[in-house]
Amino acid sequence: MEWFEEGYHARWRQRLEVTQVIHRTRTDYQEVLIFEAPLHGRVLVLDGVVQTTERDEFIYHEMIAHVPLVAHGAARDVLIIGGGDGGTLEEVLKHSGVERATMVELDPAVVELSRAYLPGISQGAFDDPRARLLFTDGVAFMGDTDDRFDVIIVDSTDPIGPGEALFTEAFYANCRARLRPGGVVVNQSGTPFIERPRLKTCLERLASVFADASFYHNSVPSYLGGSFAFGWGCDDPARRQLSAAALDARPRPEGLRCYTPAVHAAAFVHPPWLDAIAATGQLP
Hints:
Elements: E1 2-9, E2 12-18, E3 20-26, E4 31-37, E5 41-46, E6 49-53, H1 57-72, E7 77-82, H2 87-92, E8 100-105, H3 108-117, H4 119-122, E9 131-135, H5 138-144, E10 149-155, H6 169-177, E11 179-188, H7 196-207, E12 212-219, E13 227-234, H8 244-248, H9 261-267, H10 272-280
Parallel strand pairs: 7-8, 7-10, 8-9, 10-11
Antiparallel strand pairs: 1-2, 3-4, 4-5, 5-6, 11-13, 12-13
Helix pairs in contact: 7-10
């Protein structure tokens, strides 16, 4: 029996049983591994860290996409930084009001391999005429573009290696400059129980740029520790404070498996231990 051991954290490991290695390669930017696991289906690994799995990808992708889009209520132009597996793009394009979804991915090989070996995650989203796919550095794109967006989703790798620059105050400032009034930026902010200072740092940097900086929370089983945070930045606090009833009155895609208006509202309600980590970087 073969096992894959994820070594993201120095003091915590998780192991996934491997039934078949589907593809392994070194791109210009990172090591890519795709394998089949009994519980998770096909698994995408970048530089030794699990990025997504066929069986639970819908949880992460629905939460990172539909929370900001439903909160905004009228998004036409959406930007995705990263997201090479196509799962976030697929969820964004489920919104009929979205006229254009721009996806900026550093590594074209991740998109190519995901299309070939993980097509169930993107569900043809790359071929949607509303999708604009750009292969370039996300930080450079944000600094150079004159485009404006209603929602920006930073679906990046973790803040090590190629993804590190996507978690800086300067990058968030560029995001804010490219948002239309009332626009929302969200990002993946990791597993707070394990990466305790990371969420605090992310929120401090968002708060230095946006009038309303916060985070929401859900559980993604395949991510180390399960508990997972998403950063939120906006200049209109009302976008974050919508009730489940108000959210339910807004249009949203049908047939979702994780996102509901009640889940959306509840995701911004945190237990004391999580609020303590966000405020201090430590457990209470």
